[in-house]
Amino acid sequence: MKKVLVAEDESSIREFIVINLQRSGYDVLQAKNGEEALKLYEEHGDEIDIALLDIMMPIVDGIEVCKQLRSKSRNIGIIILTAKTQEMDKVTGLLVGADDYVTKPFSPSELMARVDALYRRVEAIGKPSSKEKEGVINSGEFSLNIKNRTFFKNNKPIELTHVEFSIMEYFFENKGVALSRSAILNKVWGEKYLGEEKVVDVNVRRLRMKIEEESSNPQHLVTIWGYGYKWMA
């Protein structure tokens, strides 16, 4: 069954989220703080597909929970819940491993659209790829193994989240082509995604920190100012 971990200290918001998830067919684990969330993950980690984490939680905050969950699993889907005033926290959350964020207040339709979209990507990881027969895509010193979803630089593995892998796959399929932020957003997050293009920028920034010699002077994930990005190798 589809399982979601919800960590939110405000009981009214947590109940609102849980009710909507259950109506949509999700099994839900609830935590009222970050410490409880981490304990639940230790007990049920293999079953959890997605974690919804409020940033401002007592004992252990959402950023730290996100960081720890991502260090334990590259495949779990993580959505952080933020307030409009927590702009920097959105970026920080994405940089430490979150796949997406939802800004409070949010509607049931927006919440479920984001959760469903992320679940589809998480679920797709365990399914055979239509490109499985292609095996490995090479680009300069980099290689992307479609079948087992691994990424290498000079034959050394680099850990990617499922979102990062999907972004790199799109770049490898379009080497040297300028891809707009909206094109990347539609390809990786889906055409019905309701979020901002900023999520693309932060994920590219995170990828640069993993693959570039100098992330501040990228040679591979090149910015096309006012438009998007291009892969060069």
Put the structure in a nutshell.
The chain is an alpha/beta fold. It has helices at about 10-25, 35-45, 60-70, 85-95, 110-125, 160-175, 180-190, 200-210, and strands at about 5, 25-30, 50-55, 75-85, 100-105, 135-140, 140-145, 150-155, 155, 180, 220-225, 230.
Describe the fold and architecture.
The chain has 233 residues and is an alpha/beta fold. The chain contains eight helices and twelve strands. It has two domains: 3-125, Rossmann fold, CATH 3.40.50; 132-231, Winged helix-like DNA-binding domain superfamily/Winged helix DNA-binding domain (Arc Repressor Mutant, subunit A), CATH 1.10.10. Helices cover 42% and strands 22% of the residues. The strands form three sheets. Strands 2-1-3-4-5 form a five-stranded parallel beta sheet, with helices on both faces. Strands 6-7-8-9 form a four-stranded antiparallel beta sheet, covered by helices on one side. Strands 10-12-11 form a three-stranded antiparallel beta sheet. It is globular.
